[in-house]
Design goal:
Mean pLDDT: 95
Helix content: 25-40%
Bound molecules: S-adenosylmethionine, iron/sulfur cluster
CATH superfamily: Aldolase class I
Number of strands: 12
Structural class: alpha/beta
Strand content: 15-25%
Radius of gyration: 19 Å
């Protein structure tokens, strides 16, 4: 389905939990957040109903996120449940990687198509400083295992000025020997992200051009997102930029977001959402077909409410007051 600006909406991010085993300081307060009570979180069967309605409207690709999706028991099975929905093309996952080695076989059995792993630094001390935990070896093991199993891997890094702004070098080098794309995501002024200064994609690209003069735009297809890719000669993977703040990528926005509490969000930076849990749990519908139609109307409503562009450049206009861990990124 197209939104009111003619953009085809084919992708949904589904947050399945607001819990996380890490405390990345730009995403989750050190003391944690007030967690949603269990009964407020959509059950997997309820999530599947929303995905079915969305798939009937042309949403083809689904990304499972969180919080940390792998802390919720049954995450691999949810992948399989969504994959079975007619019209679904890809189900992918974004994770901090800590539990990846443990669950990867099950995820693959259930048809996972690709994984994004968040990794801001390869320096153990800095990793602990940013995430609150000394678990970099486990994350690296997860990445290694996913690559061994030939799963498509993307590494996502958010750089922070004055904390690890030089890490672009070692992170980019990851793409040299292994076929993983390394992507630099600009810090977004959502929740705690407002407190940290990010590094623009443009700056990282300039640095890369200086170090690797042969770097060139990579026009091959890399997935559903707004990332722009480059190739460095001799590298197995590509380097991507998600310039959320400085880049004007809203023209190609293709997504809506479902929070763990059952809200459909038209845009990351606005608090407005369509309450889908109310429909999923409402006993008023005579049958499944009637409920499905109502869910489709809710998805249509969320898509039609998509604004033309985000307002990250004018922070006072941001109405999303929650932390990223509660939204799903
Ligand atoms: N726990 C999983 C993970 O870390 O991949 C999934 C959820 S996390 C909220 C999804 C992504 O959002 C991560 O790559 C994280 O780095 C990113 N993120 C969190 N807060 C952000 C912010 N303020 N600006 C940009 N990206 C952010
Ligand atoms: Fe957890 Fe992911 Fe947020 Fe880090 S970025 S605190 S791993 S949800």
């Amino acid at each position: 389905m197209r939104d009111s600006f003619g953009r085809e909406i084919s992708y949904m991010r589904i947050s399945i939990t607001d819990r996380c085993n890490l405390r990345c300081h730009y995403c989750m307060p050190q003391k944690g957040i007030e967690l949603a009570p269990a009964e407020e979180i959509l059950a997997f069967e309820e999530i599947v109903l929303v995905c079915q309605a969305a798939a009937e409207l042309g949403v083809r690709d689904f990304k499972i996120t969180g919080g940390e999706p792998l802390v919720r028991p049954g995450c691999p099975e949810l992948v399989g449940m969504i994959k079975k929905i007619p019209g679904v093309r890809q189900v992918t996952l974004t994770t901090n990687g800590f539990f990846l080695e443990r669950y990867l076989d099950k995820l693959l059995e259930n048809g996972l198509d690709a994984v994004n792993i968040s990794l801001d630094t390869l320096n153990e001390k800095l990793y602990q400083q940013i995430t609150g935990f000394d678990v970099l070896p486990a994350v690296k093991a997860g990445i290694g295992y996913a690559l061994k199993k030939r799963l498509k891997v993307k590494i996502n890094s958010v750089l922070q000025r004055g904390i690890h702004d030089r890490e672009w070098m070692s992170l980019a080098e990851l793409a040299k020997d292994v076929p993983a794309d390394v992507r630099f995501i600009e810090m977004m002024p959502i929740g705690l992200g407002k407190k940290y200064q990010g590094v623009s994609g443009e700056e990282v690209l300039l640095n890369l051009k200086e170090k690797y003069p042969g770097i060139k735009p990579d026009e091959t297809f890399h997935g559903n997102g707004p990332a722009v890719y480059y190739r460095i000669p001799g590298f197995s993977g590509s380097i991507g930029f998600i310039s959320a703040v400085h880049g004007q990528f809203c023209g190609s926005c293709n997504r809506i977001r479902l929070t763990a509490k059952g809200e459909l969000k038209p845009c990351l930076c606005y608090g407005s959402s369509v309450d889908i849990k109310e429909i999923v749990r409402n006993p008023v519908y005579a049958n499944g077909e009637e409920k499905r139609e109502e869910l489709k109307n809710a998805v249509r409503e969320a898509i039609s409410r998509k604004p033309e562009r985000h307002c990250f450049a004018t922070e006072e206009q941001i109405t999303e007051g929650r932390q990223m861990v509660q939204i799903g990124g």
